[in-house]
């Protein structure tokens, strides 16, 4: 402390001479300003900019490409890993996050992690990545061992780590380290540094190009990710032009699908020349499949073995959940063309019950209170909200009469109210029949003499509920449970029709197999990229396909997917890949096109071939002249017929 005072005094003498009284404040100010400048040497920061994120990804891929690897995949930025990294960086503790913290991060079961800290005046992302990569000199590939620390390097070049996300935090105090530092965290998915595994498979890469019949190979490939609007239009147009060439009676038009595009681009960005997994091509936009169930997030596609095509839905011995109609446990399902709601079933035009529960219109059932069995109605606390019969607090009022406990009942074709009977305007007995208002009871059945209700056949001839062949049809009525109802619409389960917003059918049908996944075609080129070229390369496989035998003499699956008649959606992605894994190519374009509904279904042909006569080609339009001739001859025939008569 004494030494510091001496140094301070000498500093004052040097700066001020011996006039310390006039200069002391200035010296103090200088020292304080210098201290603040040191504190501000590292500027506050939280999170990387988009430009910095790009720099991190690019530098990783540059260094990964420099390895002599035969299986190195491209790495891309991942926002979930970024968030996870930033959360850990914000803790300002220079130590790795726990294994539990890095488990199940987004789509990754485990994420790897590299750390970095710097108290410099600025942060350079290239310096960070290069610092980790510099550990390469301490790694022995042949022995798969480190002479010193090398885990940061092996994570940087871990071949199948395809995603990275990083965070950075300015820390006034960085625990387990120093003060005034940047703390950088990068997490990788899938995580690397797996015990006893090398970071990549060693093997030299060679330049190569795809051998296609019409692709133009010339200038070196340039960086690219995704197709532009002009290319999208070209892909769709080329597909539809080639599809129109086929002698098909059922070929549908193909349109661009953004969900398929996003999914295809996601796979292309992995830079691995292999088909995506079945799991990767499920739950794609409107074409969704989960386990045994097919459904759509837009409420259009059914469940189980029900399927959806375009505007249409049908079923075959299966289950359904569409729009307002849902399947839960045993509640709503179909079997042999019938739908059961709870234990109630609907077939053709009619809804009927068998030991179940129902609420149709104003009639409801819960527990033992209201049900139909052998033509009888039992009303406990439930009601008919017409003119006559309703319930309130466990009582029934029939016209002006009420039921509470054991007082009102029918026995031997008579009604007793307590011990009394009534035969006025509303309640009377005649010829072993009981009439309550307009409602009559005879023997086992309750019906209306005016043609309004019959419970034996479950009939109501008013606006809402009626019966045919002992079954109930739902018009304006509803099932007031959780599942089935109709509002200003009609339900017909023969064709599984719902005239509301969501569920109905009209002629067009499609199987579940064709909807459960998206088809996929792949293409790679290290030359220039032309959309006609890669579509034509797939179509060129037509020469290897035998329609009559429905077989291929070589590869023809790309062709059959291009012309698969009911594949109506397409979405494609493209990625420039410094290294294209599962191939011998580098600096190449990797194209992925996905199709929905997917084609190439075993045992099926891609389209239905038109017969040699009797059918116009599907895309042939009559000219005005031809149409005029048709109209002329039709008119002449009508005139001739009138002359004869």
From TrEMBL:
<keyword id="KW-0732">Signal</keyword>
<dbReference type="GO" id="GO:0005576">
    <property type="term" value="C:extracellular region"/>
</dbReference>
<dbReference type="InterPro" id="IPR035940">
    <property type="entry name" value="CAP_sf"/>
</dbReference>
<dbReference type="Pfam" id="PF00188">
    <property type="entry name" value="CAP"/>
</dbReference>
<dbReference type="InterPro" id="IPR001283">
    <property type="entry name" value="CRISP-related"/>
</dbReference>
<feature type="domain" description="SCP">
    <location>
        <begin position="51"/>
        <end position="196"/>
    </location>
</feature>
<feature type="signal peptide">
    <location>
        <begin position="1"/>
        <end position="23"/>
    </location>
</feature>
<protein>
    <submittedName>
        <fullName>Glioma pathogenesis-related protein 1</fullName>
    </submittedName>
</protein>
<feature type="domain" description="SCP">
    <location>
        <begin position="480"/>
        <end position="603"/>
    </location>
</feature>
<dbReference type="InterPro" id="IPR018244">
    <property type="entry name" value="Allrgn_V5/Tpx1_CS"/>
</dbReference>
<dbReference type="InterPro" id="IPR014044">
    <property type="entry name" value="CAP_dom"/>
</dbReference>
